[in-house]
Amino acid sequence: MDSIKVREIDFKKKTAHEKLITLKSSKKKQNTQTLVSEPGIKNIICFSHLRWDFVFQRPQHLLTRWAKEMPVYYIEEPIFGNFEVNYLKARTYNENITIITPHIQEQSGESEIQQYLEDAIKKLIKWNNITDYLFWYITPMALPFSKNLNPKIVVYDCMDELSHFKGAHPDMIKNEASLLKLADVVFTGGQYLYEYKKDKHTNIYPFPSSIDQKHFESGLQVSDPEDQANIPHPRAGFFGVIDERLDIELLDGLAQKMPHINFVMIGPVVKIDPAMLPRHSNIFYLGQKNYSELPAYLGNWDIALLPFAKNDSTRFISPTKTPEYLCCEKPVISTSIRDVVVPYGEMGLVLIADTVNDFAQAIEKARLLINDKNWKKKVRQVLKSNSWDLTWQGMKRIIMATLDAKVAVSTKELTPASKVLSVASSSVVVP
Q: What is the pLDDT of residues 56-107, one digit of tens each?
């Protein structure tokens, strides 16, 4: 059957078009290898505040790996507009991932929105015969409309302290507290965030950001992208979301203090006014790039930057960019973000500076590392055990051990949950 890239579902009635989707999904699941035999997990339902097509990051890395073993349903936050009816819009990604975006009438009230979403997800599960499913929460804001469903196990992947982000929903803290009570397993996106959350759950583990090494190593052997080729060297670059976490004043000061350095900024500008960004002849904003394109840009820089502001929104971040930059053998300078200082700064892999003067001096020091074979050898040694494959496998072991313990308790078996989890934890590789 031909792949159906986009569909619109009106839950007032089930059309023939939707039946075709159901048949396709059922056939796909029959040909999909599951993790374990009964009692196991056959489907992943993820609730996320991040658009799948925005920036390829932690959720995409983990869920594309889950999708090699079972169907994944990625439910984004709603889009509000002048729609005739509420509906779900869905499309496929890599065959086994279905991205679902609720479209809701903008005049809808909060209780109406939550009721629609709960009904819609229930019908999505029923019509697609989604059984033995795991709930994977990235945002606590999905809890109100999903808490009455019946997943086999609930995972909360707390990748950031979302309540500290600009524009955070006022119910974020309350919903997270409820999710922490409901969740069977909690993961954090960094060590410092783990230390902050560890007393709030009894089954919580830190899993810092990882890397796809082959992907970023490819940047060492590719030609300069067209829109970067005419930018003179030396280049100091950054890729990522350009938002309230970026230290605009630091970037502005560096550009003025170091006119001989050309600063390349790659990524979408969100939640801040683009007019606020510093504009100098040696700062180049190249816009958002696909994940597949990033190694080519990075590989043709001289130095990589993490010029994050020191504020509430960056207090617990664990930048994925740190190991990605290093994987492409680029000297890195960062502000004193906790999960960069420990371990990368302490190991001498990343230079740490916060002021314009200190950062400028660090850039000059970093230029000396460009051809330093000993530094590159140390980087390779440290990164060799860091990969998204290992991170995902470690998470999976904990999840399955937790599920085994949960089943044992529910069936009154004698295996203590603490013993099962202890065995699982001892085999987990945490970068």
A: 999 999 999 999 999 999 999 999 999 999 999 999 998 899 999 999 999 9
pTM (2 d.p.): 0.85
Burial label for 69, CB within 10 Å (0-12, 13-18, 19+), is middle
Q: For residue 1, tell me if it sits in a domain.
A: no
Phi, then psi, of 186 in degrees rounded to 5: -125, 130
Has residue 209 got a pLDDT over 90? no
Indicate if 282 and 369 belong to the same structural domain: yes
Say whether both 218 and 137 belong to one domain. Answer: no
Copy the structure tokens of residue 135: 């709930």
Structural domains in the chain (count):
3
Last residue within a domain, chosen from 206, 231, 259: 206
Name the percent of the chain in helix, strand, coil, to the closest 5.
Answer: 40, 20, 40
pLDDT band at residue 10 under the 50/70/90 scheme = very low
Q: Is the peptide bond before 278 cis (omega within 30 degrees of 0)?
A: no
The two counts, helices (H) then strands (E), for the chain are: 15, 16
Angle value at C-alpha 219, between 64 and 373, nearest 5 degrees:
120
Task: Look at 219-228, 389-398, 410-419 and tell me which has the smallest mean pLDDT.
Answer: 410-419
Question: What is the domain range of residue 111?
Answer: 7-206
- My answer on whether 374 and 289 are in the same domain is yes
Mean pLDDT of 255-273: 97
Q: Among residues 206, 227, 258, which one ends one of the domains?
A: 206
Residue 360: inside a domain: yes
- Determine, yes or no, domain membership for 408: yes
For the chain, what is the mean pLDDT? 87
- Produce one character per residue of 202-224: b if its CB has 16 or more CB atoms within 10 Å, e if not: ebbbbbbbbbbbebbbbbeeeee
> What's the token pair of residue 188?
């954090």
